[in-house]
Amino acid sequence: MKNQNSIVLGTWSWGTGFAGGDQVFGNNLGVEELKPVFDEAMANGLNLWDSAVVYGMGASETLLSTFTKNCKREDVVISTKFTPQIAGDSENPVADMLTGSLERFATEYIDIYWIHNPADVEKWTPYLAPLVKGGKVRRVGVSNHNLAQIKRVEEILSKEGVHISAVQNHYSLLYRSSEKAGILDYCKEHQIDFWAYMVLEQGALSGKYDTAHPLPVGSQRGETYNPLLPQIEKLVAVMRTIGNKYGITPAQVALAWAITKGTTPIIGVTKPSQVQDAVRAMQIELTTDEVKMLEDAAENIGVDTRGSWENPMI
């Protein structure tokens, strides 16, 4: 099996509140439902957990910390983010937001700390270096940045002897703009991990939904993807054909594709069975022909799933 960090477990849909699980995903999950999910992941060596202050305004972090606090600190890898849009106007808003995360996780350091989006690269990037040097953050990354912004962040940090260690962007069969923009190649060249979020397009590529079985009505994801289901069904049919060969589902095909492409997919986990599915997907290596077949099918349906929060990469 590939290393245990070839999949990240995402907690965007954990907790409730602004930009939280109930609003975006149409669910409402607490400690009781999520403890078996956390335990299943850890039992399978999946110990890399991704959160952000903005997910439910601390709710996701608080929920995740309920479980991580009971682990040996070195046994769990915690990733969370500074989101410029909710920054205060203190002298050091990045350190302040990080302090909140450190308190919620009851830890002295965060393994990977991200700038969530490129609101102002020149302004926010310099705040990261002292956090690494002071030991409060082990590694730093950027999310939703384009190639020019990533290079600029690296330029600013490297003057302080700090380097970008990861990039986290929306990347799926339906949305490959980071690849087309050369970001995947840049990351590979510079030993930077590329974390792919929304690999399943919030469930639209899971094979569970189609025109007869739409995504939850009234949720943001339902509004986004339900109108696109007639086209998406055509891609899912190809995913299903390839999956049948390996005895896996379309969702697992999407994960296997992302791993075969050299990225680290982030999957939102809300059930132990999803963890088991991920473990199985990690064991599948798709052929070059299968990858091409999937990508051609995706290009042919011509769907653009760029999120409202994302700037174009190209």
Protein described:
This protein has 14 helices and eight strands. With 314 residues, it is α/β, with parallel strands linked by helices. It has an eight-stranded parallel β-barrel with strand order 1-2-3-4-5-6-7-8, surrounded by four helices. It starts with 7 loop residues before the first strand and ends in a 13-residue tail after the last helix.
The radius of gyration over CA amounts to: 19 Å
**CATH fold descriptor:** TIM Barrel
Counting H and I runs of at least 4 residues, what is the number of helices?
14
The total tally of domains equals 1
Q: Give the name of the CATH architecture.
A: Alpha-Beta Barrel
Order of helices and strands: EHHEHEHEHHEHEHHEHHHEHH
Note poorly predicted spans: 19-26
| CATH superfamily descriptor | NADP-dependent oxidoreductase domain
How would you characterize the largest beta sheet?
8 strands, parallel, barrel
Q: Residue share in helices?
A: 40-55%
How many β strands by DSSP?
Answer: 8
